[in-house]
Design brief:
Layout: H1 3-8, H2 13-38, H3 43-68, H4 79-109, E1 114-116, E2 120-122, H5 130-166
Antiparallel strand pairs: 1-2
């Protein structure tokens, strides 16, 4: 296989769908919390939670897809960049699972079930505990949130760097 071919070989369709729907779910979840913070309605916090749990389930399915789906060869780059790429992807996956999980635990420790779009509730499955609710709130908002922003910016920045500075057609692989 030539180096040009390995540079433009696409990820399998399932991986591309998981990638872009993950990004969409994350954006919608962020948008719902922005609406909640800026409008008087409590509807948006419920939607924020439902989309967050949807993202959690989607990410679990995405990890399973990643394990069983073949991957294209990596874009040609220095070994240190490849290592940083693998580490940053792993961290981003972990954060996208940990964030909604911490949000769920914050809700249930706060004694609140999570309404899933009016279809069903995730019940309170632990004894309510304000200290634990506060702990998971802090993890959710003060630790994981800034890390997701940072690693999302790194991910997008690296993709743009490869596409427009290195000109190695990296973005074509995920279209």
């Amino acid at each position: 296989m030539t180096s040009l071919t390995s540079r433009i070989q696409k990820w399998p369709l399932s991986s591309r769908v998981f990638h872009w729907i993950s990004a969409l779910l994350l954006l919608v979840t962020w948008f719902m919390i922005l609406l909640h913070d800026n409008l008087p309605s409590n509807t948006y916090i419920g939607l924020h939670k439902a989309f967050g749990i949807s993202l959690l389930c989607w990410m679990i399915a995405r990890v399973l897809n990643r394990v069983v789906t073949p991957t294209p060869p990596p874009v040609i780059m220095p070994k240190w960049q490849l290592l940083l790429s693998k580490i940053s992807h792993f961290i981003l996956y972990a954060l996208l699972i940990a964030m909604p999980l911490a949000g769920l635990l914050m809700s249930v420790y706060g004694g609140r079930a999570v309404d899933m779009f009016g279809l069903f509730d995730i019940p309170v499955f632990v004894s309510p505990d304000r200290t634990m609710a506060r702990f998971f709130n802090d993890v959710h908002t003060d630790i994981i949130w800034p890390l997701i922003i940072a690693f999302t910016a790194i991910h997008i920045g690296a993709a743009l760097y490869h596409q427009y500075i290195k000109k190695d057609n990296l973005l074509t692989r995920m279209k």
